[in-house]
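User: Can you recover a sequence for this backbone? Please restate the input before giving your answer.

Assistant: Of course. Working from this structure:
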């Protein structure tokens, strides 16, 4: 057989890798970037606590508040809550996304924070379902409570007719391979696995993962080597003592 024929018969590794590589949908990329502005869902503060604190602040006033004062007090309570859990010096991009902290934007800020919490929680749930050994095709992924209020809404169109509006993130997820939405093995970030065998979000985390796995493997291998040497030494010692006894006899 000619060399040309052999080369044709070998699988093209580069082509195989390319076939397993898939680019993330542009709309989904935006939501992943948004989710990574804050910690994982398991570390997020309870959003219901925010609502309770805002309500407590408003109802503790001695006199009724007009609309402007109400929005100002509500925003003040929300900012206090956010600063406690997300210090501005540690989460500058979070506050950049929220925008100017002005009482006229109180509702918009509230909605943006809620959207951010829901986005992170839902993507974490999808990534977690892939690492769960019980996950299988056809199995439902439960929508976290943080994302439930935004999932679906009823609205009126221009003619006063009812229509169903779906959360943009849900639209971006339809038809997407769930297994490519992952949580980095080395840091808290959500990422899109362009290559199906990728388990870390960037080169730095890939190197960190490789070193960690090598050390774990080395430690286990080193432990086995020590056990074998100890067993061999013990066996050699027994044989030596037996030989000495036979000679002495």
């Amino acid at each position: 057989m000619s060399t040309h024929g052999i080369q044709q018969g070998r699988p093209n590794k580069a082509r195989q890798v390319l076939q397993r590589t898939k680019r993330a949908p542009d709309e989904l990329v935006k939501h992943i970037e948004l989710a990574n502005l804050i910690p994982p869902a398991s570390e997020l503060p309870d959003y219901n606590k925010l609502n309770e604190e805002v309500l407590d602040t408003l109802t503790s006033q001695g006199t009724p508040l007009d609309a402007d004062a109400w929005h100002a007090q509500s925003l003040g309570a929300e900012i206090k809550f956010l600063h406690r859990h997300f210090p501005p010096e540690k989460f500058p991009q979070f506050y950049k996304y929220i925008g100017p902290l002005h009482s006229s934007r109180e509702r918009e800020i509230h909605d943006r924070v809620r959207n951010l919490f829901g986005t992170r929680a839902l993507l974490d749930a999808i990534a977690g379902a892939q690492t769960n050994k019980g996950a299988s095709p056809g199995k439902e992924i439960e929508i976290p409570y943080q994302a439930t209020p935004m999932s679906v809404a009823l609205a009126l169109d221009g003619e006063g007719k009812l229509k169903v509006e779906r959360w943009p993130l849900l639209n971006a997820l339809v038809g997407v391979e769930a297994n490519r939405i992952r949580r980095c093995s080395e840091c808290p970030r959500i990422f899109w696995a362009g290559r199906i065998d990728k388990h870390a979000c960037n080169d730095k985390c890939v190197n960190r993962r490789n070193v960690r796995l090598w050390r774990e493997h080395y430690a286990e291998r080193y432990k086995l080597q020590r056990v074998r040497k100890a067993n061999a030494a013990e066996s050699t010692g027994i044989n030596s003592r037996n030989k000495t006894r036979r000679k002495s006899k």
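That completes the design. The first strand starts at residue 152 and ends at 156.
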